[in-house]
Every structure is written in C-alpha cells, then in structure tokens.
Specification:
Length: 118
C-alpha cells in the first residue's frame, strides 16, 4: 500500500557517494564544446547587452537577413522587427512600431519579407 510507504529510509551506509569521473569529464567536455560552438558562430554570451542601444533595441546590422543562429541571444526570430531600435525601425519601415502593429498581419509579413526581417 503506497499510502503507508515510508520513502525516508536510508541504507545503513551513510557515506557520501563519490562523483563518477567519467560523467564529470563528459559534462566538462560538453560545456567546453558549447563554448567553442558559440564562439565559432560569432556569438559571445558575454556581450548581448553591449550590442543593445539605450532603449534595449538592436542595430539593424544584427537583425536584417540573419539566420536564427546568427541572431543575438534572446531575439525571437519570428519578431526580429520588434528588437530594432526605434530610429532604425522608423528608417526601415517609415512608420512607428505602434503604427506597424496596427496593420493586418499579412501586411506586416509582406513588409518584413521586403526588408529582410522575416
């Protein structure tokens, strides 16, 4: 009967379990490989905030015609236009973000495709 089961029983040996050296080495290698992958993609985990402007937007150079793995950390690839700085957004689309998001979705998609933000 599971209602009366006692899961707090410990075995008689209360010695700490030693870390498995094979697992520790594999974990270390995985972290090292991830760092190398990020560097080879041109992504530096320590700099995303430095790439943002004072309002939290990104420069157009970091967003236009970029593949998912080329985008700055945290950028939703389906909404790249959202992450543009306000001046860049206006220069590209000729309207404010508010005006853009008031348009029908199909018009938004067409403009995003036209300007390399799809």
């Amino acid at each position: 009967d599971l209602k009366n089961a006692n899961f707090n029983n410990r075995n008689s040996s209360s010695k700490p379990v030693a870390a498995n050296p094979v697992i520790s080495e594999a974990r270390s290698n995985l972290q090292e490989n991830q760092t190398l992958t990020n560097r080879s993609n041109g992504y530096n985990a320590n700099t995303p905030l430095q790439e943002r402007d004072e309002n939290g937007g990104f420069s157009r150079d970091l967003l236009i015609n970029k593949k998912v793995d080329e985008l700055p950390e945290g950028v939703d690839p389906t909404q790249k236009e959202y992450y543009l700085s306000d001046p860049d957004f206006y220069d590209i689309f000729g309207k404010t973000k508010h005006e853009f998001y008031q348009m029908p979705k199909w018009k938004q998609q067409n403009e995003k495709k036209q300007y390399g933000l799809f």
